Amino acid sequence: MSPGPRQIPGMLDDPLIIQIPPGVPPLAAVQARLAVAGACGGRGRCGTCAVTLVGERLPPPLPADRRWIDTAGLARGQRLACTLHPGEYLVSGARTPATVTGHAWDRIISRDFVPGPAGPGIAIDIGTTTVMATAFDKGGMPGRVWSAPNLQRRYGADVMSRVSASAEPEGVCDLRRAVLEPMAAVVRAAAVSIERPAWIVAVGNTVMQHLVAGIDATSLGISPFAPREQGLGWHSVCVPVDTDGTGWQVSLVPPLGGLVGSDVVASIALIRKRAVEDPWLLVDMGTNCEMALWAHDRLLFTSVPAGPAFEGGGLSCGCVAGDGAVEHVEAKGDALGLTVIGGGAPVGLCGSAAIDLCAVLGSSGRMEQSGRLVEDPCVQLALPGLSFTQRDVREMQKAKAAVEIGVRALLTHASLPLKDLRSLVLCGAFARGLQLDNAQAIGLIPRMDRGRIMVAGNGALLGAGLCQDPGMVANLQRRGQRVILQTEGFAARFAEAVRLRPWE
Ligand code: FES
């Protein structure tokens, strides 16, 4: 049983001043300071962004507030964060980094996992959206996974907006502070189950690694997206874990190269420990998709920008994968059956459901392989006012095409026919929710024997502890060959990859 959100000692529960500047989405401004879920992405459809305002002059409740908050709550000052107008608000509640959530490893991972490095130690995965940590006991078994929002999100959802923000005066310092705080919170939570850790290791994408280390990240925002020289080395950072402000030293694992970070290094370490059959391909899908191909002692890697569609972003009906999100869609006769996370009323589709829907529409003949919706440019879902539009299909196609182009580039560079690929390992949170049949039907992943596909979930967190060996990391960096996607012929490759059909 998850203990749910909890307060970290030493954090304040005082009202907080939150400013919503004109032009900034109010949900984003509030989420930068407070842990509110905002499952529908700020469209007033889920009620998961409610906050309590303090003061005498409260904004009058809007229809969306009345829909989700009862009369007593409205009288207490509760309002939806996403409906607030620009201005300054006094908001009560725990500060964001104080709220961490814990959960057990999911079944797939625990079944496949082999014990990690001897503990006691703590591994951290610094994600663009979420920071996670787990403690390893003396026998190398991981405990609960603790997570907290990455407070950098006030600067934008994807890594490129963080890079842009870091170019501002004090940008690197601000972004560094914004990620150290949740790092401290999750380490503090993980450390409760063990004695003082003998080691703490952190992995993350290249941009996160630069910013945590306090390194100028602007080179990562322009072609050829190269890390700084000092960014390719190890760093030890002081994370303010103790409530008296004392820091704990965290070893920051260097990236593989380009925008392929140490989270991939950690996943590779885990895959190799499990002796996955060679040649294998690792794909971590997100706004920036990272991929690595291990083929007969050769390591090739690349990254492709896929946009936010896999995380529900940019879709008219999209939302993040949390309570209320439709996780899966299936055909039920002429109707669509929806599976909702948490079982309540649906608020939108997360990325895995959008994949399902594309597959269902394709197999029923309502959508062509080109992505054109045949009968109607708008598929009505069983949600009031919610539909999956032609534009949403196009967003999914772009994201899917990015993955296919990256995978094909790696296979081509390795002169490896797809039929000779023995294993496909899907990493990252998005992969955990994928219906593999549907992902294969639309060509998001290649068609291959299902027994050869592994879903490693957050392999980066499990593998992070294995990266304590600098020799192993240096060996991967030395051996790794970065594949830079050719611009030549890109239009033709994109036109083919954008098609929603199986590929093999
Ligand atoms: S984010 Fe405000 S109601 Fe969903």
Outline, from the CA principal axes?
globular
Q: Could you name the CATH topology of the domain at 101-262?
A: Nucleotidyltransferase, domain 5
Number of strands: 22
Gyration radius from CA atoms, angstroms: 22 Å
The CATH superfamily title of the domain at 101-262 = Domain of unknown function (DUF4445)
Short précis:
This protein has 504 residues and is α/β, with parallel strands linked by helices.
Explain what this protein looks like in three dimensions.
With 504 residues, the protein is an alpha/beta fold. Helix content is 29%, strand content 23%. A hairpin with a 3-residue loop joins strand 12 and strand 13. Helix 6 packs across helix 7 and helix 10 (390-413) packs across helix 15 (490-497). FE2/S2 (inorganic) cluster is lined by residues 27, 38-40, 42, 44-49, 80, 82. FE2/S2 (inorganic) cluster binds at residues 27, 38-40, 42, 44-49, 80, 82.
